[in-house]
Specification:
about 140 residues, alpha+beta, Double Stranded RNA Binding Domain, 3-stranded antiparallel β-sheet, two-stranded antiparallel ribbon, about 35% helix
């Protein structure tokens, strides 16, 4: 996931840690007096719009797919306060950034257009004909003299 100086997003894309802003804040929730003294919540900010480490095509895909999660200036803000210690929250928030970015920049699968086979068309028309006949037969019986 992370080598010495960069966060590995895909085999070809790595984001240097200098582009990622990490801050720590006091986390809420249970934890006793520790909550009031230790800043264990990790808050990560990453500027998707102006990151030089993302190729242009990946940046555009990420901006469109992550649009609801981005600030107006194009910042992605993530936080983690799941753990009681700062280092585990830091690792968790970096893992989330990696997963979110990898999913956002993944190119869409190419859809190869297909057409129904001749036998499939024939089967469909035969079934339609049988269904039509069955429904016609459901009508009222004619009165015979």
């Amino acid at each position: 996931m992370a080598n010495g100086d960069a966060l590995q997003i895909t085999p070809r894309i790595a984001v240097p840690f200098r582009e990622i802003e990490l801050r720590y804040a006091r986390a809420g929730g249970p934890g006793g007096q520790n909550v009031n003294k230790v800043a264990s919540k990790a808050v990560l900010r990453f500027d998707v719009r102006s990151s030089p480490s993302l190729p242009e095509s990946a940046r555009l895909r990420a901006l469109s797919r992550l649009a609801p999660r981005l600030t107006r200036s194009g910042m992605l803000v993530l936080s983690s306060d799941a753990h009681r210690d700062q280092s585990r929250n830091r690792a968790a928030v970096l893992a989330r950034l990696c997963a979110i970015l990898a999913a956002a920049i993944k190119p869409p699968k190419y859809r190869r257009p297909t057409a129904p086979t001749a036998s499939a068309r024939e089967r469909r028309l035969t079934e339609k004909h049988l269904r039509s006949r069955r429904k016609r037969q459901r009508g009222r019986a004619a009165l015979e003299d």
